[in-house]
Write a structure and sequence with these properties.
2 domains, RNA Polymerase Alpha Subunit, Chain A, domain 2, alpha+beta, 8-stranded mixed beta sheet
């Protein structure tokens, strides 16, 4: 026992110094690829494979926190751009609103490991897709030349199919055209105008993006009669 005690206590300062020196040398000489650390990154969350007959009406958070583990040398090269979070909704249902997040939805560079995902659940909402033919209403601005009036405006096609979530598309909705300027117009004319959706969460269910607008003018008899009466 005395031998063991002497072994520990004799030259204690020198032994402590030797231990610290050996530890420092170990830290200096050990390769960086042999030491590992962790790092947490804010990564964009992507939703993929939304069923064709469904609409995403309530989106999950735009980013999540992903903690990765890798060698110190490699860890410094990992950035949010090299990590992706992909939530696959191929088997999603309109009845499910909470979806788990774990390492299986995270893609990291080879040599790194996912050790944490926060939050571990996200909420989103899907609805069935609805399609409806909506009337196209012309948006006319300006005034035709004095002595004329607009007798008729025809839109071709008059109705266009639109898609959206069931709760977002309504029977009273109407499409409009981009502004049609008739300022100074004295002859009937055929123009084209862009189709404007009533809300950004709807979309056209056709490749058509413009409509034909036929404007028919006629003499304004009321204006002529007013001028004749004034002259008399």
């Amino acid at each position: 026992m005395r031998f063991v005690r002497n072994l520990i206590t004799r030259n204690r300062g020198l032994k402590l110094f030797s231990f610290l020196l050996a530890f420092v040398l170990w830290l200096i000489l050990i390769p960086e690829e042999k030491t590992y650390s962790e790092r947490t990154l804010a990564v964009p969350l992507e939703t993929r494979n939304i069923p064709a007959d469904m609409e995403l009406v309530e989106k999950p958070p735009g980013t999540i926190d992903v903690t990765v583990r890798a060698s110190n040398r490699f860890l410094n090269e990992i950035s949010p751009a090299s990590v992706s979070a992909r939530l696959d909704l191929e088997r999603a249902s309109i009845y499910q609103e909470m979806y788990p997040l774990n390492a299986s939805v995270i893609v990291v560079p080879q040599g790194a490991e996912v050790v944490g995902v926060s939050p571990n659940m996200v909420r989103l909402k899907l609805e069935k897709t609805r399609q409806m033919d909506l009337e196209v209403a012309p948006m006319v601005v300006g005034k035709v030349r004095e002595g004329f009036r607009i007798a008729k405006i025809e839109i071709t096609p008059a109705r266009i199919p639109v898609k959206g979530a069931e709760s977002k598309i309504r029977t009273r909705d109407r499409l409009t055209t981009s502004p049609i300027d008739v300022s100074g117009l004295a002859l009937s004319a055929t123009l084209e105008a862009d189709i404007i959706l009533p809300r950004p969460d709807l979309r056209l269910a056709t490749p058509l993006t413009r409509v034909r607008v036929d404007i028919t003018l006629e003499k304004d008899e009321r204006s002529s009669n007013g001028k004749d009466a004034g002259a008399r």
